[in-house]
Amino acid sequence: MLDILYSIIPQMLFFAAPLIFTALGGVYSERSGVINIGLEGLMVIGAFSSVTFNLLYADVLGDATPWYSLLVAIIAGMLFSLIHAVATITFRADQTVTGVAINMLALGFGVFMIKQIFGKGQTDFISQPIYSTDVPFLVDIPVIGKMFFNNMYITSYIAIVLSFVAWYVLYKTPFGLRIRAVGEHPMAADTNGIKVYTTRYIGVIISGALAGLGGAVFAMTISLNFSVSTIAGQGFMAIAAVIFGKWNPLGAMGAALFFGFAQSLSVVGSSIPLLENVPQVYLLIAPYVLTILALAGFIGRSVAPKASGVPYVKGSR
Amino acid sequence: MFSSTKFNFIIPIISVLLGLAAGAIIMLIFGYNPILGYQALWNGVFDSPFFMSETVNRITPYILTGLAIAFAFRTGLFNIGAEGQVLVGWVAAVWVGTAVDAPAFIHLPLALLAAAAAGALWAFVPGILKAKLGVHEVIVSIMMNYIALHVTNYLIRFVLTDNQETTEPVKQSASLTNDFLIGLTGSRLHLGFIVALLMVLVMWIILERTKLGYELKAVGYNQHASNYAGMKVGRNIVVSMLISGLFAGLAGAMQGLGSFGNAFTNTAFSNLGFDGIAVALLGGNNPFGVVLSASLFGFLKVGSLNMSSAGVPNEIIEIVIALIILFVASGFIIRWALLQLKKGEKK
């Protein structure tokens, strides 16, 4: 039994990390009142920019390359999310529509640029990915060490720590209160002197940064290259995690971990005695069926931030 | 002043022009000749009857997924699950098309019906969960997409075939293809476009000429008011999703009984459903608008394949389509700019 946990838990954290980052971004955007269906596209931009940077600068930067690549992806994600912000906040565009457009734009742009730079539609594999490591000392702790500190990616730890930071910021700081206020009742927030537009811009840009990071972590740890199908639905899973987690950073993290767990089951499931005779299709659809059951059963109604999806027009009632 | 119906036409047209202009600018920046690029796009469709019919084959499922999403939008629902509904419709149609023996006038309608039913069934799940438990239809639809992907792969591998990646072709009695059209164009041009256009009429009639359509739209505008007026909100949500899924399922049948004539395993989505979102939006969620926007999308997608002959990566068209959608969505600013222009003229 313990052996199973030893193989599942690191896998789960490995698959969950990109989803956690992206879902946290989604929480901030939606809490500020802007639906971001474009998370998928922002992940594409993160994956594209980090892989491209990694390939071009691996010779110069050596071992530090993947970390710079993550940084590049964060900036690229922020810049790209500005399109969403300008369209939805300033131009009052329909947020869902714009998000869909962002997804198409990002994929078209990413592949177009890859063809420009590398002359083909799929990049080579990066030479400087993020490797898994054992955490010194902690790995020697009996039982727990092998579960949580063996063969782990640093990015998984960062994701979990960041979830707590995101929760603290959202619920315990004035800035977080402002984000929540403009997402819940922008007019009341405006009356109290909170700059609704600025706050929403920040919310969207944070989502761009985190989704870019999520896409980059996926590229640097899982896919290791970029093509049209690198990011295939992870952004939508992140949106699901946001709703599943009831728009709370820790809830979103929990949902992302759950998705990671389900995904790792379908990978290592065949080596688990109890599951080895189950046709693989059941393991493959398990995460999605379980999510639906969980939503229908014990999670119940998840209510979006009240003003989410509604453009704010100053002076309107 | 422009009336608001006038804006409904002007904004998409301006958006398309702006999108193409932006595409030209991008081509210029990267050192391509936009005139040659767009010429290749145009020729890619109109140079041969083969590619013209390929374009029609591309437009047909776009019309149906566009209708699916537009119908749901009109009733206040976002059916992001069209993607999965297309897949199950596709496999259901091929299943009936390969396994059943019947004369064409029974076999073909039966296969279409199976596709529509499968799509509707797949849309029923998010519909009933939304109606009964208030679960967000978007998240359930996304989950249903993945379930569809894996389940259809499983069915193709282990039920329809014996561990193959591709099924047998559907029997001629269930096929939408037609020897006369194939002889005429040398392509797989099929009769699906008739089905698609019929569905356009069906959607229009339901929404504009029936009590059901009136109720569905009312629930879309304001659930609470509809409830107060005595309409059954939950039932309307389910019915709306069923009809939406039916359209999407038929889109799958167009592929399975027409363009491809079989079904095959997929590692990723076909994107027909996701592109349908864009088709619906550009078409203003109006059934006739959907025909126009589906035609534009089909034209751009098929034509773009020829752009590499001018050395331009065909992803440029993906960018153009995305920009068109962005401009349509930002209609407010276009409207504002037009009104400013109008004011300037008066002075």
From TrEMBL, chain A:
Cell compartments where the protein resides: Cell membrane
Cell membrane among keywords: yes
Listed InterPro entries: ABC_transp_permease
GO CC terms, sorted: plasma membrane
Keyword tags: Cell membrane, Membrane, Sugar transport, Transmembrane, Transmembrane helix, Transport
Membrane topology, as annotated: Multi-pass membrane protein
Gene Ontology molecular-function annotations: transmembrane transporter activity
Predominant place of localization: membrane
Membrane-spanning parts: 6-27, 34-55, 67-87, 99-118, 152-171, 201-220, 281-299
The protein's name in its UniProt record: Simple sugar transport system permease protein
Species of the source: Terribacillus halophilus
From TrEMBL, chain B:
Keywords: Cell membrane, Membrane, Sugar transport, Transmembrane, Transmembrane helix, Transport
GO cellular component: plasma membrane
Membrane topology term: Multi-pass membrane protein
Pfam families (UniProt xref): BPD_transp_2 (PF02653)
InterPro entries assigned: ABC_transp_permease (IPR001851)
Coiled-coil region list: none
One MF annotation (Gene Ontology) recorded for this entry: transmembrane transporter activity
Transmembrane domains' residue ranges: 7-32, 59-80, 87-106, 112-131, 138-160, 180-207, 237-257, 277-299, 319-338
UniProt-annotated location(s): Cell membrane
Protein name: Simple sugar transport system permease protein
Annotated organism of origin: Terribacillus halophilus
Higher taxonomy: Bacteria, Bacillati, Bacillota, Bacilli, Bacillales
